[in-house]
């Protein structure tokens, strides 16, 4: 890995930490480095996501965080990715999406992803909201 590659990776990680902290205040420590490795199989997956998803995508300026949340919710519902959806329900609320808008995203998804996916999304959202 060249020095330039190392710098780019470091920059993306820094951007990823910034975006993650903004998306999950109180969940992710506000300062200092963050190491979420646990010594188990696939422990680098979180680090990869921090640089690629949070740094390279959420760190971009092309969409507001609120808009990114709405897009992400729709994608996760379509994929049936309820575990990730639970986290992104909280992220969406932080980014200004209202509970009524969350419900509308779920309703809207029923027409495109099918009723079972919408019901699973509603269940995941309710769990994320403590309902």
From TrEMBL:
Q: What Pfam families is this protein classified in?
A: CMD
Q: Could you tell me which InterPro entries the record lists for this protein?
A: 4CMD/NDH-1_regulator (IPR052512), AhpD-like (IPR029032), CMD-like (IPR003779)
Domain of life assignment = Bacteria
Carboxymuconolactone decarboxylase-like domain location, by residue?
A: 53-127
Q: Which PANTHER family match?
A: 4-CARBOXYMUCONOLACTONE DECARBOXYLASE FAMILY PROTEIN, CARBOXYMUCONOLACTONE DECARBOXYLASE-LIKE DOMAIN-CONTAINING PROTEIN
The protein depicted here goes by the name: Carboxymuconolactone decarboxylase family protein
Record the organism: Streptomyces hokutonensis
Instruction: Recall the taxonomic lineage recorded for the source organism.
Output: Bacteria, Bacillati, Actinomycetota, Actinomycetes, Kitasatosporales
């Amino acid at each position: 890995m060249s020095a330039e590659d190392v710098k780019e990776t470091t920059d993306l990680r820094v951007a990823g930490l910034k975006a993650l902290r903004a998306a999950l205040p109180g969940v992710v420590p506000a300062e200092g480095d963050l190491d979420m490795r646990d010594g188990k199989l696939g422990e680098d997956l979180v680090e990869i996501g921090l640089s690629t998803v949070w740094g390279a995508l959420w760190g971009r300026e092309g969409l507001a965080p609120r808009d990114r949340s709405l897009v992400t919710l729709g994608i996760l519902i379509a994929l049936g990715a309820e575990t990730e959806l639970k986290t992104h329900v909280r992220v969406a609320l932080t980014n200004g999406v209202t509970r009524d808008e969350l419900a509308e995203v779920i309703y809207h998804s029923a027409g495109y992803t099918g009723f079972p996916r919408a019901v699973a999304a509603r269940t995941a959202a309710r769990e994320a909201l403590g309902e």
